[in-house]
Structure formats: structure tokens, C-alpha cells
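Dear colleagues,

As part of the handover before I leave the project, I'm documenting each prediction I ran so the next person doesn't have to rerun anything. This entry is a single chain, and its sequence is reproduced below.
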Amino acid sequence: MNAADSISVIVPVYNEEASLRLLVPALVGVLEAAGRPFEIITVNDGSVDGSAALLAELASAEPRLKTVTFARNFGQTAAMMAGFDHATGAIIIPIDADLQNDPLDIPRLLTKLDEGYDVVSGWRKNRHDAAIRRNFLSRCANGVISWLSGVRLHDYGCSLKAYRRSVVGQIKLYGEMHRFIPIYASWYGARITEIEVTHHKRRFGKSNYGMIRIIKVILDLIVVCFLDRYVGKPIYLFGGFGLLWLLISALTLIDILYLKIFKHLSMILTPLPSLAAMAFMMGVMSILLGLLAEIAVRIYFATPGRTSYVVRETANFAPVGRTA
């Protein structure tokens, strides 16, 4: 499938057997009505319910439904990365498997994409989740992410987005980084917009999100900011801290000499010698860490083909070396 308007819908799955029975037929119906070539890629992220068996059954009846099964649970970001890696469509649309995203919004995303945008992000303006634990904290997080990244979106956490393959083909995801894909895309000059999408209450099971994810998102945001500013030259960050510590050490040494010469104060009575020595060592160590980071960056850019997941099996994919 190599048509310029072909679609790959990616569905990360973790214990969503009941939802999949409704989601897959709904996706097929919406995509057939869109009149474009399509594939649906479900990534079974180590489900322990009947999701794997159901997906195998559905894939046997629908060749446009393709499945990737992980050896164990690797998380939503790894599942989405696997979908990106296996997708063949020119347009990639992730969607949650829990039926909270509405497949009927997909044609609206495509229409907006056809206006010349590279990324169309869904905005769950009327979100049906816990008011404080999910909605309020999500709004705060989205505000901070928009402010730090400069990419103004209301809802980074909404999985329902449309991407042109050309702007996401080189992105490598890990941790909780899937929500930051628009930021990565902006680094490549992508034109980004958002539209309001429907958000439904969860019908089956319970959410797999916990409070601990907020901490993970904050830490990943720090990584994204670092990558945005210093991934090419980490010595600028570490070296900057190193020079600051060396400056503190030098100023402390000057203060020591001043007190010794003009005040006749014994340095044994002050902590200044220890402070000067510590600041000097911190400065040297920061610069050395910067140099090590530079080496790591060179290795990172020179080592292609790494993934953050392990695939056990696939279904309905063309053999390696052949195209569908």
C-alpha cells in the first residue's frame, strides 16, 4: 500500500477484549466510507485477557486488519512505536482501543490534513474522565508543555491524531514520549493544528493510567526540553554548569585570599577552602560529563535500528523484502 492518501490506523491494545469487538467493525466501516486505501494495525501490548485470541479471529476474517503481538507488556509508547514501524500508509492515525475516541472523527482529521497541515491533533474539549485526577491535572500539564515547547496545543494526551508519514518516519519513541510527537514533528518544520474531537465515557474495564504517570510525564518533558535544546551539543549544558562551578570556585578563592591578606583570618576557621575545592571538582566533573555525553550522542546517531520493544509474532504483513 503506497498510495499518497493511504491510511494506517494504529491501535495500541492492553486488555481491551470487550472494546475491540465494537471498535474494529466501526473502524472498518468509517475507513471504507472514506474511500481511501487503509490498514488497521493493532499492537497487543502483552494483554492477559482474551484480546490476543480475538484479534487473531478478527484478522483471519479481515485481511486489512494486521496484528503485532508483544512478548510482554512494554507500555503504550512502545506499542505506538511498533505501529509506526509496521505502518505502510502515507497518513498515520493512532486511536485508543477503549472506545473513548470516536472513529467518526477520523474523516474530520483527514479533511483538516488535506488543508495542508502535517499534524492534526485531537482536542478532547468535553472530556469524560475524573474531574481532578485526570481533567484538571491534564490541563495543567498541557499548559506547561505548551509553554516550554512553544507548540500550542490544548490536549497533548489525546491519542487521536493524524500525521503525515513524512514528518514522523524518523521519530523514535520511548518512555511516555508518545504524547510529545507533535513537538518532535515541529523540529522537522511540520505544520500543526488541532480540532475538537468527541470523547466518550469508558464503557468497559478501567483506565490503566495512574498518578505515577504524571511524574513520568514531567521527567519525560525534561528530556524533551533537553533534546530540543542540547541533543546535538550536550557540552553546552554540562559545560555551562561546569564553568559556573569553576567561577564559584575562583570567586571563593579570591575571597579566601582577601580574608587572609587584609583581615588576617585563618582559613581553618571558615568553610571556604572546602567550598572552593568542592566547586572546582564539580566544575571539572560537569565538563567531563559533557564530553562523555558528546561521545554518547555520536554513538546514538551512528546506531540505527534500535527499538524499545520485542515482537513475538505478526499477522497479515507482507514478507520482508516484498510490498503489499
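The beta strands are 7-13, 38-44, 65-70, 91-94, 119-123, 161-164, 192-196, 311-315. Residues 28 and 208 are 26 Å apart (CA to CA).

All the best with the project,
I.
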